[in-house]
Amino acid sequence: MNYFIAIMKTVDPIKDEAIRKEHIDYLNDLIERGKIITKGPFTDHTGGLIIFRAETMEEAWQLAEKDPAAIERTREFTIKEWKSTLNI
Predict the structure, then answer these.
(1) Measured at the alpha carbon of residue 36, what is the angle toward residues 61 and 77, in degrees to the nearest 5?
(2) Is 73 left (phi over 0), alpha (psi -120 to 50) or beta?
């Protein structure tokens, strides 16, 4: 299994606040399915970070694109493959 860092930049804060519950519910479902190992907002309120567990970059993008924040275009996503130097 590979890890992918998704950096989310908030581009529509008002609409983003309106869909926050759906966004969090979606991410919590992915956590339950073992597809996310950690997530959280940036303290400067500009977006957040997700670490996906996926087989491929394509799978990571598919997970990100199903996020209500992506569907509603309240956040822009950048995804990079990441290698941990810890046993996680």
Answers:
(1) 35
(2) left
- The pTM score is 0.91
Assigned domain for 87 exists: no
Higher pLDDT, 86 or 71: 71
The CA–CA distances, whole Å, from 40 to 3, 28, 49, 51 equal: 16, 11, 6, 10
The count of structural domains within the chain is: 1
Q: How many CB atoms lie within 10 A of CB 69?
A: 26
Q: Which residue range(s) make up the domain with 39?
A: 2-82
CA distances from 70 to 54, 57, 58, 62, 82 (A): 18, 16, 15, 11, 21
